[in-house]
């Protein structure tokens, strides 16, 4: 199979993507978070094909992508009012909410769970495709399960060329990490996955605190302890430990590289400098990891960001990407 690369700016390409989805094919689509591997949410065999192509466990749920909330009751029941309050503030956007599933919804989407995760992506092209399709899509990250997420059409082509019918090139993702997931089936809104919408913004919108569990037992996309991983060994490191590592000979400058916030001129090490701004860091994170993963290093040391709430999502991704 030859995977087509379609331009998001070309109306004929958009129509071609819609036709492929209607025919039960898989299409890589841009969103503001990461590129998604899309299938028509009403097409069971297409949904099953997502799991095969990604090598994704069948009990690992998918996120439903809607164009708006007008048909939400077809997919979820017992919808709390807080859903619409959050939607008014963050949808379209990088927020997914977990709701009770309508019994008519296929278990293929939810991995057998009685709950369903939904969001409205903030990308003009993908919203246009969903609207023309006439039904929602499911769209996990368009890569091999557990590996580094794709933030460009090129990344999707590298990972899935020959396995899917097309990729729509909508440019690089402007957020760069996955959506925040909040559980609204619990008495208190619960953070299940930090992501593109930060905790401060959510709590400000709700005028209340969000519960952050020590561990997440609910089955959701991206909640495994090892995820988003390069093939190269990734090791988190504090700034004060970088000098010690070099002095002890723990980092061979020819086979290791350091992902840093600032240039440590006194150290003779390979380094890649990242911005201290969390939004710019997030935009670059997966793309930089992909470049370094292909560069032939034996180990990537990554400087641990601050432990402040705005860095919660990045720290989560680093922890899971480095877990062995």
From TrEMBL:
<feature type="binding site">
    <location>
        <position position="56"/>
    </location>
    <ligand>
        <name>ATP</name>
    </ligand>
</feature>
<keyword id="KW-0808">Transferase</keyword>
<keyword id="KW-0547">Nucleotide-binding</keyword>
<dbReference type="InterPro" id="IPR006070">
    <property type="entry name" value="Sua5-like_dom"/>
</dbReference>
<keyword id="KW-0819">tRNA processing</keyword>
<feature type="binding site">
    <location>
        <position position="179"/>
    </location>
    <ligand>
        <name>L-threonine</name>
    </ligand>
</feature>
<feature type="domain" description="YrdC-like">
    <location>
        <begin position="11"/>
        <end position="197"/>
    </location>
</feature>
<dbReference type="GO" id="GO:0061710">
    <property type="term" value="F:L-threonylcarbamoyladenylate synthase"/>
</dbReference>
<keyword id="KW-0548">Nucleotidyltransferase</keyword>
<feature type="binding site">
    <location>
        <position position="33"/>
    </location>
    <ligand>
        <name>L-threonine</name>
    </ligand>
</feature>
<feature type="binding site">
    <location>
        <position position="139"/>
    </location>
    <ligand>
        <name>L-threonine</name>
    </ligand>
</feature>
<feature type="binding site">
    <location>
        <position position="65"/>
    </location>
    <ligand>
        <name>L-threonine</name>
    </ligand>
</feature>
<dbReference type="GO" id="GO:0008033">
    <property type="term" value="P:tRNA processing"/>
</dbReference>
<dbReference type="GO" id="GO:0003725">
    <property type="term" value="F:double-stranded RNA binding"/>
</dbReference>
<feature type="binding site">
    <location>
        <position position="149"/>
    </location>
    <ligand>
        <name>ATP</name>
    </ligand>
</feature>
<dbReference type="InterPro" id="IPR050156">
    <property type="entry name" value="TC-AMP_synthase_SUA5"/>
</dbReference>
<feature type="binding site">
    <location>
        <position position="193"/>
    </location>
    <ligand>
        <name>ATP</name>
    </ligand>
</feature>
<dbReference type="GO" id="GO:0006450">
    <property type="term" value="P:regulation of translational fidelity"/>
</dbReference>
<dbReference type="Pfam" id="PF01300">
    <property type="entry name" value="Sua5_yciO_yrdC"/>
</dbReference>
<dbReference type="InterPro" id="IPR038385">
    <property type="entry name" value="Sua5/YwlC_C"/>
</dbReference>
<dbReference type="Pfam" id="PF03481">
    <property type="entry name" value="Sua5_C"/>
</dbReference>
<comment type="similarity">
    <text>Belongs to the SUA5 family.</text>
</comment>
<dbReference type="GO" id="GO:0000049">
    <property type="term" value="F:tRNA binding"/>
</dbReference>
<protein>
    <recommendedName>
        <fullName>Threonylcarbamoyl-AMP synthase</fullName>
        <ecNumber>2.7.7.87</ecNumber>
    </recommendedName>
</protein>
<dbReference type="GO" id="GO:0005737">
    <property type="term" value="C:cytoplasm"/>
</dbReference>
<dbReference type="InterPro" id="IPR005145">
    <property type="entry name" value="Sua5_C"/>
</dbReference>
<feature type="binding site">
    <location>
        <position position="228"/>
    </location>
    <ligand>
        <name>ATP</name>
    </ligand>
</feature>
<dbReference type="InterPro" id="IPR017945">
    <property type="entry name" value="DHBP_synth_RibB-like_a/b_dom"/>
</dbReference>
<keyword id="KW-0963">Cytoplasm</keyword>
<dbReference type="InterPro" id="IPR010923">
    <property type="entry name" value="T(6)A37_SUA5"/>
</dbReference>
<keyword id="KW-0067">ATP-binding</keyword>
<feature type="binding site">
    <location>
        <position position="141"/>
    </location>
    <ligand>
        <name>ATP</name>
    </ligand>
</feature>
<feature type="binding site">
    <location>
        <position position="119"/>
    </location>
    <ligand>
        <name>L-threonine</name>
    </ligand>
</feature>
<comment type="function">
    <text>Required for the formation of a threonylcarbamoyl group on adenosine at position 37 (t(6)A37) in tRNAs that read codons beginning with adenine.</text>
</comment>
<dbReference type="GO" id="GO:0005524">
    <property type="term" value="F:ATP binding"/>
</dbReference>
